[in-house]
Design goal:
About 25% of the residues lie in helices and about 25% in strands. The protein is an alpha+beta fold and about 475 residues long. The chain has 2 domains: about 100-185, Pdz3 Domain, CATH 2.30.42; about 190-340 and about 360-460, 2-enoyl-CoA Hydratase, Chain A, domain 1, CATH 3.90.226.10. The strands form 4 sheets. Strands 1, 2, 14, 15, 16, 19 and 20 form a 7-stranded antiparallel β-sheet that branches. Strands 4, 5, 6, 7, 8 and 9 form a 6-stranded antiparallel β-sheet that branches. Helix 7 runs parallel beside helix 8 (about 315-325). The longest helix is centred in the N-terminal third of the chain and has 17 residues, at about 40-55.
C-alpha cells in the first residue's frame, strides 16, 4: 500500500479471534501522547503496591501488569486486545494462513468457545468437529472463564503434540471427548468451479496474505474452462474477514477503476482515509498486481454475492462496495455487522496492542457497525427456510459492542421471541437422525442458496424468503 495507508500499525478487518485472526501491513510513527491522568495513575500504582505487599502469597509483578493492561483493553469493545509474547507470535502467524494447531475458526458464546467452522482437511475436521459445537474443556482446564485468547493459546502448540477437547453438541444433547494431534495448518481461502455451462461459483472463506493471488489464479482457471462466462456467484458466506487490502483488491477486480471501495474514520487524523479501486490502495510495496492478469470481461460479468450472518468485516466491505456501486446483487441474509477497523501496534519486540481505531463506511457513506449489509434479495438457507437464524450471534449481540455512530440504536422487540421459537425448533430437530440434520456443503448440488443465485443470474425465478427480514441495530446500554 506504500504511503497510501495512513493508519498507524497493521490494519485488521477480521471478525473472529482464534485460529484465523488476521492483520494488514503498515507501520508509521505515532504522534505525541495525550496528557496522562496523574491522579488515576497514582491510584493504579497504589493498588499495585498493596497487592504486591499485602496479598496472601507472593505475586508475579510482570503478570500483574500484563493482566492490568489486558483488562483495560478488553473493557473497550470485543475486538480490542493486548498480545503477550506468545499470542503476538500466533497473531502474526495467522496472517500467512499457516499455524500449528487443531484447525478451527472460533468465537465465544455464553463463556464457552464455539466452533464457527473446522478448516477443511485439518485435524479438527478429520476428528468430526462441526459448526456450532461448544468446547467446554481444553485438556483438564474448564473453558468457562477463559478469554478467547487464552483458549487459543491452550489449543495451539508444537506439531505432533496432542490436545484433549471436551465437546458439547447442542443438537445431539451430548458431551463427548475428542483427542486431536496438532499439526501445521495451511488454509486454502479460495475455491471455485464452473457449476454449469456459462456460470461459475467462487468462494472466499477468508481474506489472507495469499487470498488475492489465489483469487486471481482461480478466476484464470474458470475463464480458461469457460471463456464466455455469463455470470459469477461470489460466495462470502461464513467469511469472517481478514486483511483490509485484500478486501479492497477483490472489490477492485469487479469495479470501475478509481471508484471508492471503503472509507475509514476515527479519532486520529491518520484514520480518516478513503480506499479506491486502484493498485496503489491494495498493493504491498514492491509487489506485482495479480489483477492485471484477469480478463477485462470480469468488470462487466453479472455477479451475485452470497452472504449470511457469518459474513463479517472484510467480506462486508466487498459486499457493501459492490452493492453501493450497483455492480452485484446481494443475496442471502443480513451480515454480521462488524464495521470497525483494528490497528495492531507493536509495544516492543514481542508484544503488541490490537486497538479499534476507526469505523469503516461503504461508498455511499453508511456505517454497517452493529447492523450489517442488508441483502437486495433475502434468501433462506434451505427450501424449508432458515429456522435457526435467530440463534446466530452477530456484532450487535456482543457485549460492549461499538455502536454505528449514525443515530440511536433501537431495540428489536421480536428478537427474544424469535430466539425462543428457534430454540424450540432446534429441540425438535435434535430428535431427527444425524444424517437428516447435516447442512448441505457450500458449492454442492444441494446448496439451495447457490441454486437461487444461479437462477437470479439466468433471469429465472428465485424463491425469496418469506420469513427473513432486516434486523435493525439493537440498543446499546451505556
Amino acid at each position: 500500500m506504500g504511503q497510501k495507508l495512513k493508519i498507524a500499525g497493521w490494519v485488521a478487518a477480521g471478525a473472529l479471534a482464534g485460529a484465523m485472526t488476521t492483520v494488514s501491513l503498515q507501520t508509521v510513527a505515532r504522534g505525541a501522547m495525550a496528557p496522562l491522568p496523574l491522579e488515576e495513575l497514582q491510584q493504579l500504582a497504589a493498588v499495585f503496591g498493596m497487592v504486591k505487599s499485602d496479598y496472601v502469597e507472593p505475586v508475579d509483578e510482570k503478570k500483574l501488569i500484563s493482566d492490568a493492561i489486558s483488562g483495560m483493553v478488553a473493557s473497550l469493545d470485543p475486538h480490542s486486545q493486548y498480545f503477550d509474547k506468545k499470542s503476538f507470535k500466533e497473531f502474526r502467524e495467522g496472517t500467512t494462513g499457516r499455524f500449528v494447531g487443531v484447525g478451527i475458526e472460533i468465537t465465544q458464546e455464553d463463556g464457552l468457545v464455539k466452533v464457527v467452522s473446522p478448516i477443511e482437511g485439518s485435524p479438527a475436521f478429520r476428528a468430526g468437529l462441526k459448526p456450532g459445537d461448544l468446547i467446554t474443556k481444553i485438556d483438564d482446564t474448564a473453558v468457562k472463564g477463559l478469554s478467547l485468547n487464552d483458549a487459543v493459546k491452550r489449543m495451539r502448540g508444537e506439531p505432533n503434540t496432542k490436545v484433549d477437547l471436551t465437546i458439547f453438541r447442542k443438537d445431539e444433547s451430548r458431551t463427548f471427548p475428542v483427542s486431536i494431534t496438532r499439526e501445521e495448518i495451511r488454509t486454502q481461502s479460495v475455491k471455485g468451479k464452473v457449476v454449469e455451462p456459462g456460470y461459475a461459483w467462487l468462494r472466499l472463506s477468508q481474506f489472507q496474505d495469499r487470498t488475492v493471488d489465489d483469487f486471481a489464479r482461480k478466476l484464470e482457471e474458470i475463464y480458461k474452462q469457460e471463456p464466455n462466462l455469463k455470470g459469477l456467484v461470489l460466495d462470502l458466506r461464513n467469511d469472517p474477514g481478514g486483511l483490509l487490502d485484500a478486501a479492497v483488491a477483490v472489490s477492485a477486480a469487479f469495479l470501475p477503476d478509481g471508484v471508492t471501495v471503503v472509507s475509514t474514520n476515527g479519532q486520529l487524523a491518520d484514520s480518516k482515509f478513503t480506499y479506491k479501486a486502484a493498485p496503489e490502495y491494495y498493493l504491498r510495496r514492491g509487489g506485482s498486481d495479480p489483477l492485471k492478469r484477469l480478463p477485462a470481461a470480469l468488470k462487466t460479468v453479472p455477479i451475485v454475492v452470497l452472504v449470511n450472518e457469518g459474513s463479517a468485516s472484510a467480506s462486508e466491505i466487498v459486499a457493501g462496495a459492490l452493492q453501493d456501486h450497483k455492480r452485484a446483487t446481494i443475496m442471502g441474509s443480513q451480515t454480521f455487522g462488524k464495521g470497525s477497523v483494528q490497528t495492531v501496534r507493536p509495544l516492543g519486540p514481542d508484544t503488541g496492542l490490537k486497538l479499534t481505531t476507526a469505523r469503516y463506511y461503504t461508498p455511499s457513506g453508511n456505517s454497517i457497525q452493529a447492523k450489517g449489509i442488508v441483502p437486495d434479495v433475502m434468501v433462506d438457507e434451505t427450501e424449508e427456510g432458515s429456522p435457526f437464524a435467530a440463534l446466530r450471534t452477530r456484532e450487535a449481540d456482543l457485549e460492549k459492542h461499538l455502536n454505528s455512530g449514525q443515530g440511536p440504536e433501537v431495540k428489536d422487540p421480536g428478537r427474544e421471541k424469535a430466539r425462543e421459537e428457534a430454540r424450540k425448533r432446534l429441540e425438535e430437530e435434535a430428535k431427527k437422525p444425524v444424517s437428516e440434520r447435516r447442512p448441505p456443503e457450500f458449492g454442492s448440488d444441494k446448496d439451495f442458496q447457490l441454486a437461487q443465485a444461479v437462477n437470479q443470474l439466468k433471469g429465472g425465478p428465485v424463491l425469496v424468503s418469506k420469513t427473513l427480514v432486516e434486523r435493525p441495530a439493537e440498543k446499546k446500554e451505556n
